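ERR on first pass: missing label on line 2. Operator R.T. fixed the label and resubmitted. Corrected input:
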Amino acid sequence: MQGFYSKLESPSSSPTHSSSLVADPVSKEGVALAEEAEKARALLRTFSSASLAASAGLAVFCVVADVAVASLTHSVAGRQHLWARAALDNAAHGVIGFWAWAIVVGLRRRSDLQEALLAGGVASMLDLDHFYAAGSLSLQAALSLPRRPPLHCSTLLAASCLALRLIMAALRLKDAWRALPWLVFVAGATHHARDGARRGLWLWPLGHTPPLPYWLYVGATATLPPLCALLMHLTGAQHAARAARHGVAIDV
Ligand SMILES: [Zn+2]
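pass 2 clean. output:
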């Protein structure tokens, strides 16, 4: 057997390149085999010991972050410096979003790190809607809202991610972007789950749930990344995005 490295062409690739693969049944079969092998490897990576350890580590971080925020909240410094408490709490959202997406993609390449940083940014920036709803840059006003701000509506988050997925399909954007709705969902869901442990989930138009049990918040946050990765594999989003970015090794 002779090994070589070939860029896997996605369905959205140019017709010129695709036709060369279709015309050659050996190449077509090789690409199909490589695609199946890559899917199997990706699935094994999702449930590898490293991935499961990272999920357990994420659960531990959630608890440590909440203990740190609670300690600062009840300290003299924390009572005096509202911004410090808010910054620490928001940083925890960002790290959890980063960590969760890092588990989904595996952090093997620079582009994986960039995606994880984007997820952390999304998870962190969701809280900017507090200032939008308050109509002020005052932190006191932002934290004293009579109702939850719009980006904290969980049904809106799910509907937005679905709409983003449909828009991207309609516009036939590159496969490399197919993971974006999933990224936004994971980042947003980790934020909502953490807030939900304190205030419940806002499921408009159904209303609010009671505060989530703490074990449920931590368990859901740690379980979401591998579950999301599995769903992405099943729908082909993970493989398409990875193949579009990095190509697939073919050994025939
Ligand atoms: Zn929030």
